[in-house]
């Protein structure tokens, strides 16, 4: 059988030297390391008062985007659910009725869209699979709760509110934005100025 | 009996067999794709041009190659004919062009379309198509039409294969729909939104290679890869009652005919079986339908107990019953 690593050592039952048997040098050595850390830069931060800076591509709580007119982009195609390795996403599709054109962009929409935040591993594959630029992971954190049931986020928590839009423009590379200038993908444009 | 060689494989076929059918007798990857030809219906084929092949030698008597690529669904074989499909770069190039033409007016609304996952145009585009459309003009669009209360017609998605027209012609005793107009403006239509409620009219859904004709009773109910297809049957006086039930838990999402390896129905089923029995109790379930393992429908689809345990057996193969001896030097 081939060795998996070159770093493995064979355990040998050899006698200890006098220095090793005294134990004191080893203890003093250990204490010195501990003492050294008193004077080093602290890595912990005082969380609620201090916060770390997030990378713009941090993968936190999801958002279901609306388009520029405020209609939901998600069309319940199910590709995010099929891409999800944790099987955290479920949805039910419904047909758009006449007069709901301002609410949903396509003929089909998700009447129920749920993400189980306990199952989710925040890998971002749903974002990658989405053909409609509807789901994005954001730099927001999922709130902690006392009950497990609350972690199943429905559309009420996932769809962005009209008055507090979530900016995801920093999450997209130059290449993606360039790609979207093609008239074929016009519906995915971030804003109208790109047209 | 004439002998024909397709991509280097020789086969003896009955007189009058077409190249496509000869290839289907061999089976496997060398079978040219066909969007319009349907062996169970008469007068189909010759519309879509996806089954183009190169005839490198016409026959044993006259071994000259045919000057142009031939439509394999309507060219009969001759003794000593040599056909190239996958082995000819010319055919692959031509097929690429044909797919591009088929997709010119196709809306590519797969995320919405109920056919996505079992769509032949999707497969064809994936295999032969370009990544991007070169077409810059407006695609033709139509209003959606309800053909009766059970069938929905999305004319925008249609590739004009004429299969549904032949079904209506040959299976139902009175045809109420057909193709109107010509060329670029041709469309499948009923005479002034006539209801299609003849006994076997529901088969237009199964023969449609794209999502132009879809089952309204299953519209947007579930994406196909979340359904569990099961072979089932019931006693039916009109048809043989052998169907596939597409299940979501205890719910029957839709009922379709069974498909053979060429993706043609094994036998046409009646509208009563298709639309009116949407309860699991109405059917006798035989076994899970065989789904090709490369299909998206094979997601979470297990056909027997052995497959369910496959993860386990795989583990056993890697770790045989006798554990490997511990080697100190490693």
Q: Tell me the total number of β-strands of chain A.
A: 5
Q: Architecture of one domain in chain A, CATH level 2?
A: 2-Layer Sandwich
Cross-sheet strand order for the largest sheet of chain B: 2-1-5-3-4
Count of DSSP H/I helices of chain A: 6
Number of strands of chain B: 14
Succession of helices and strands of chain A: HHEHEEHEEHH
Write up what this structure looks like.
The complex is a heterodimer of chains A (195) and B (330). With 195 residues, chain A is α+β, with helices and mostly antiparallel strands. Chain A has a domain at 62-194: Alpha-Beta Plaits (2-Layer Sandwich). Helix content of chain A is 21%, strand content 12%. In chain A, strands 2-3-5 form a three-stranded antiparallel sheet. The longest helix of chain A has 15 residues, at 24-38. Chain B is of the alpha+beta class. Chain B folds into three domains: 3-102, Ubiquitin-like (UB roll), CATH 3.10.20.740; 106-132 and 139-220, Alpha-Beta Plaits, CATH 3.30.70; 221-316, no CATH class. Chain B is built from eight helices and 14 strands. Chain B has helices at 19-26, 89-102, 120-128, 163-170, 203-207, 271-276, 305-308, 310-318, and strands at 3-6, 9-12, 52-57, 70-71, 81-84, 145-147, 151-153, 177-180, 187-190, 213-215, 228-233, 242-248, 251-257, 284-288. In chain B, strand 8 (177-180) and strand 9 form a beta hairpin. In chain B, helix 2 (89-102) packs across helix 3 (120-128). The longest helix of chain B has 14 residues, at 89-102. The N and C termini of chain B lie far apart (66 Å). The interface between A and B is medium-sized, with 22 and 22 residues.
């Amino acid at each position: 059988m081939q060795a998996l690593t070159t770093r493995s050592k064979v355990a040998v039952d050899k006698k200890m030297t006098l220095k090793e048997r005294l134990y004191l040098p080893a203890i003093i050595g250990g204490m010195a390391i501990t003492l050294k850390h008193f004077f080093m830069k602290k890595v912990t931060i005082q969380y609620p008062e201090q916060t770390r800076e997030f990378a713009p591509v941090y993968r936190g709580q999801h958002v279901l985007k609306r388009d520029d007119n405020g209609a939901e982009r998600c069309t319940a195609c199910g590709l995010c659910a099929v891409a999800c390795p944790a099987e955290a996403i479920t949805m039910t599709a419904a047909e758009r009725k006449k007069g709901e054109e301002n609410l949903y962009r396509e003929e089909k929409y998700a009447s129920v869209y749920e993400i189980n935040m306990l199952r989710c591993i925040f890998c971002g594959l749903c974002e990658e699979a989405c053909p409609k630029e509807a789901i994005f992971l954001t730099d927001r954190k999922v709130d902690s709760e006392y009950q497990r049931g609350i972690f199943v986020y429905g559309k009420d928590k996932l769809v962005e509110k009209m008055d507090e839009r979530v900016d995801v423009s920093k999450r997209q590379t130059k290449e993606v934005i360039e790609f979207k200038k093609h008239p074929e993908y016009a519906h995915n444009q971030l804003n109208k100025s790109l047209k | 009996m004439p002998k024909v060689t397709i991509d280097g494989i020789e086969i003896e076929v009955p007189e009058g067999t077409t190249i496509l059918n000869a290839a289907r007798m061999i089976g496997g990857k060398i079978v040219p794709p066909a969007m319009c030809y349907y062996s169970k219906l008469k007068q189909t084929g010759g519309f879509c041009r996806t089954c183009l092949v190169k005839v490198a030698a016409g026959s044993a008597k006259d071994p000259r190659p045919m000057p142009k690529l031939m439509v394999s669904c309507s060219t009969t074989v001759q003794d000593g004919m040599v056909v190239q499909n996958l082995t000819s770069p010319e055919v692959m190039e031509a097929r690429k062009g044909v797919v591009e033409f088929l997709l010119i007016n196709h809306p590519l609304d797969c995320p919405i379309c109920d056919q996505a996952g079992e769509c032949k145009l999707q497969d064809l585009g994936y295999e032969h198509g370009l990544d991007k459309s070169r077409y810059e003009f407006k695609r033709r669009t139509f209003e959606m039409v309800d053909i009766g209360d059970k069938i929905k017609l999305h004319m925008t998605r249609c590739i004009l294969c004429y299969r549904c027209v032949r079904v209506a012609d040959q299976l139902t005793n009175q045809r109420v729909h057909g193709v109107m107009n010509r060329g670029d403006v041709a469309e499948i239509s009923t005479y002034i939104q006539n209801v299609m409620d003849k006994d076997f009219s529901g088969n237009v859904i199964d023969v449609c290679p794209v999502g132009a004709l879809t089952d309204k009773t299953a519209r947007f109910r579930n994406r196909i890869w979340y359904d569990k297809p099961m072979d089932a049957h019931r006693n039916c006086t009109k048809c043989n009652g052998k169907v596939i039930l597409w299940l979501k838990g205890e719910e029957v999402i839709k009922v379709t005919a069974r498909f053979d390896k060429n993706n043609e129905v094994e036998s046409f089923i009646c509208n009563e079986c298709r639309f009116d029995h949407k309860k699991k109790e109405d059917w006798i379930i035989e076994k899970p339908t065989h789904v090709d393992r490369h299909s998206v429908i094979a997601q979470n689809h297990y056909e027997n107990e052995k497959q369910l345990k496959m993860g386990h057996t795989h583990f056993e193969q890697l770790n045989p019953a006798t554990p490997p001896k511990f080697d100190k030097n490693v």
